[in-house]
Structures are given as structure tokens and as C-alpha cells.
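Colleagues,

Please find the record for the two-part complex below.
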Amino acid sequence: MLKYLLPLGLFLVLVVFLAIGLSRDPHEVPSALINKPAPTFRLPQLKEPTRTFSAEDMKGKVWLLNVWASWCIACREEHEYLGGYAKSGVAPIIGLNYKDRPEDALAWLGELGDPYQLSAVDLDGRVAIDYGVYGAPETYVIDKSGTIRHKHVGPVMPDVWSQEILPLVQKLNREGTTR
Amino acid sequence: MTRSSLLALFLLCLIPSFATAQVQEEERPSDDPVIEARLAKLSKELRCLQCQNQTLADSPAGLAADLRREIRVQMKAGKSDQEIVAFLTQRYGDFILYKPRVTFTTYLLWFGPFVLLLGGLYVLFRYIRQRRDSIPEKPLSADERRRAEELLAASGKGAA
């Protein structure tokens, strides 16, 4: 009996492994930057190009860094919800305008509304490389000490917001500044 | 991934103008042939994360061009290949490497096939030995031996 059951058992184990492998999204690459300090940068602001923004400016706050571009189709999908997240006031959202023409980006915000506290202009995508960005939109949750605590690749739809991001931000808001 | 999002992805690939709105400088090869040769070799071992099944050398994606530019800058600054790979894995993780590192989590990947081979050989040898042992050695009786000799002699004559 064992002679027949053993290959069948092995086959079933293989099926389970393959089924798990197939149901995973290969585009979700685990970020190498979780629990690492957010890379520093200083970039001009989209709406006020003479002023700059640095990740350091947000020390002491829990904030979200949202990588977006006017050419990015999934960003448009996400955009209609971002305003609501920003209005809830749990955390400021900073935009990283990724490889976009500033005039296109401004027109986009004019048309769809601007949920961002401000957007920093990453014209050549160099800062995005430091953050390991490989597909907009991407959203990073950064804590009070300036550490990246979570990364979401793809649009932050309401279910992602209420299940992944919001609980984490609320927890981080309760944490002290020193960690 | 659902079927509709796969279809959408496929349709997106058909629109060549999709990426043109992206700010993309024209890629300028370095004037140093040594750097270009090193880049060509190194970028074959790296994955483009935007299109996943292409190397950094082959990919036309914006991100791949940016990373090639970054690698050129670093090579020009005198960084070694190992330093550049370290730079990239710090940001994008081991997934950017086409050849997985030998770490605890990849032991099964690296050594699994050899374990399977050894296991297969063990099963094969055991089967062969079992089969040999199951054939009983039964000596011929005197009568059988005489008949066999007769037959051999007859066939020897026939062949001659």
C-alpha cells in the first residue's frame, strides 16, 4: 500500500507548493528598506520650485511618501482616494513626482485635486533609485524617527488603506519619537 | 492577478507611446570602452524589476536605463563591481540578482537537485540489488547438463 501512497503523497505536496507559488504576485518584491532609515534627499518642490524639501524636514512626524507621476495610469486610479486619506488627518502625504514633466504634473493636480502637503520633483529618478522604486505608484510609511516601516507597491485602494496603512499609521502615531 | 488585469497589461504593452510622457534622457554610452564592457557584463547578471524577466542589459524600460546610467556613474567614480552590486541589493534586495546568492534560505534551491540525484541513485541501486537477489541460483541437474551439452554440440556442428 505504501508503495502507492508515497508517490501520491509526494505529488500532493508538490501540488500544494505549486498552487502557493502560482497564487503569489511576482510583482510584489519584498522591500530591502523596511526598518532602515529613509534615504535622505533634497529636491525642489513642485509648486514652489525655489524651495526645497528634504526627508529630514519630516522628523518627529509619521508621514507617507507617495511616488506618483502624471503618466502613470494606476496613479490616477489611486488619486481619487488620496484626498480622503489626507483629509482624515492621520498623516501628511508627501508626493514624490517621479520622472514627470513639471507642467504635466501641475496640470494633473489642477485637474484632479492636490492631496499632497507638497510634492518633491524627482526629475531624473535618482532619489527613486535610493528608495528602491520600481513601479509607480508606491507608498512608504515613515515613522517619527525617519525609519521606513512599510512599503506598498501599486495603488492604495480603500481596502489597502483600511487594512494595511491606517492601522500601522495609528500605531506609529502612538509611539514616541525615540525608538 | 485577474484575467482582466492581465488583459489590461497586455493592451498597455501594445501602446508604444505609453512611456513617452515619462521624462527620459537619451541614454549616452560612456566614452570609456572599458566601462561599457564592464557594464555589458554586469548588467547581464541583473534583473530589471520593472519587467522582471529581462536583464538590465536587455530591458528598454525607463528604470533599466536609469540604473545603467547610475552604474556608469559609479564605475566612472572607480567603484568595483561588488560595490555596485551591493549598492543595488541594498535598495532593491536580492531579487535584482539573476544568480541567487547562497544563503540559508536558498540552500534548497542550490543543493536540492543534487539531493534528488543522490536519492534517485540510492533508489536505483537498491532496486537493482533487490532484483538480483530475487533471482534464485539453481544449479543444473546432471540430466539437464547432459542435454545442454548435446544441444551445444549439435549447434556447433550445424554452424561449422
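Chain B touches chain A at residues 1, 12, 18-19, 21-25, 49-50, 52, 62-63, 66-67, 70, 89-95 (CB under 8 Å).

Comments are welcome before we finalize the supplementary table.
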